[in-house]
Design brief:
Its cofactor is Zn(2+). The protein has about 375 residues and is an alpha/beta fold. The chain is built from twelve helices and 18 strands. It has two domains: about 180 residues, Quinone Oxidoreductase, Chain A, domain 1; about 140 residues, NAD(P)-binding Rossmann-like Domain (Rossmann fold, 3-Layer(aba) Sandwich).
Length: about 375
């Protein structure tokens, strides 16, 4: 039996979001109906809004939801009505990749996250009597209520500050996971972060937690560089500074141990690669255009320099989100310095502020209060 809920419907590429009443399915096998308290807005949402996802509209986007379980479908274990949850990406937990501990690269990952549908191709919501793409990351969290899956829900304390924790499901997890899970940065090592938005600043905070000797932050926005210093960066550079690569190489006597590209730009990726030392690793986190290409010197690769792509920072949300929640509780991961909250009705204002770089992480409030 369906229930009426409100959702921000995107009717066509680059159109404004419009709050509409839609009908939400009852939970199926393994699914949870979640009353969404808050949802972050991620650059991936904006990329899909701009048509980069190449799927048909209308659609309901959003993939950084947090809320309270209202009901569960058959076969659900570990969750019950009243549980507070943070929602992340979907993985099947059964394929060979998941079994090897890499759920971000699940063999059903595209179908379960990026297609806008359930893995079986069906849609949880109907708008004006017709199915609408509404399974984005198995949540489509720009709605008052969603259907998530037990595999992409992470239980948190019932009094958890869901408005703050919502963005842990993707952006903050991606940046912090790259440092703590993929790189496994050790005390005394050096990191360079190119692009200090939500993902890059999460990487900066994680590097400070890990005990990095030097944290280099690069961005076009001087205000964001000031915040990066507050959060742990030891050195900051405007991205258009002349001789940037040469300066970093000189200060590090040959390069950093790790570099992160958080923009999705071939030019920036090449910069990040060039400041990475031999035997160091450069990671790509930014979402590039589908046809983006980069030229890399093969000799650098031959001498042990590595270039890797990462989804979700290689993090498993079932383990990693609780770790980030604990770091926040300890004061080591100050999410509140990165977020600004907006009423659900102001979603287009939030998108505008994000696109104009006046806010780092907009968070929509669908329902107010803690989980209780």
């Amino acid at each position: 039996m369906t229930v009426p809920v409100r959702a921000a419907v995107l009717r066509e590429v680059n159109a404004p979001f419009v709050l509409e009443e839609v009908d939400l399915d009852a939970p199926r096998q393994g699914e949870l109906r979640v009353r969404v308290h808050a949802s972050g807005i991620c650059h991936t949402d904006l990329s899909y809004r701009a048509g980069q996802g190449r799927f048909a509209f209308p659609a309901v986007l959003g993939h950084e939801g947090a809320g309270v379980v209202e009901s569960v479908g058959e076969g659900v274990t570990g969750f019950e009505p009243g549980d507070a949850v943070v929602l992340s990406y979907y993985s099947c937990r059964a394929c060979g990749t998941c079994a090897r501990g890499q759920p971000a690269y699940c063999e059903q990952g595209y179908a379960g996250n990026f297609s806008g549908a359930r893995p079986d191709g069906t849609y949880p919501m109907r708008w004006r009597g017709e199915p609408i793409r509404s399974g984005f990351f198995h949540q489509s969290s720009f709605a008052t209520h969603v259907l998530a899956h037990q595999h992409n829900a992470v239980k948190v304390a019932k009094d958890a500050p869901l408005e703050l924790l919502a963005p842990l499901g993707c952006g903050f997890q991606t940046g912090a996971g790259a440092v703590l899970e993929s790189f496994r940065l050790q005390p005394g090592q050096r990191l360079a972060v190119f692009g200090v938005g939500a993902v890059g600043l999460a990487a900066v905070m994680a590097a400070r937690v890990a005990g990095a000797a030097s944290i280099f932050a690069v961005d076009l926005d001087a205000r964001r560089l000031e915040l990066a210093r507050e959060l742990g960066a030891t050195d900051t550079f405007l991205a258009d500074e002349p001789e940037l690569t040469r300066t970093v190489l000189k200060k590090t006597r040959g390069g950093v141990d790790f570099a992160l590209e958080c923009v999705g730009s071939p030019k920036v990726l090449r910069q990040a690669f060039d400041v990475t030392r031999p035997l160091g690793t450069c990671g790509l986190l930014g979402l590039p255009s589908a046809d983006a290409q980069v030229s890399i010197p093969m000799m650098a690769l031959l001498f042990g320099k590595r270039l890797v792509g990462m989804l979700e920072g290689d993090a498993d949300p079932k383990r990693f989100v609780p770790r980030l929640v604990a770091l926040h509780a300890q004061g080591s991961f100050p999410l509140e310095k990165l977020s600004r909250s907006y009423a659900f009705e102001a979603i287009n204002d939030a998108v505008h502020d994000m696109e104009s770089r006046t806010v780092i992480k907009p968070v929509l409030r669908m329902h107010t209060g803690a989980a209780r």
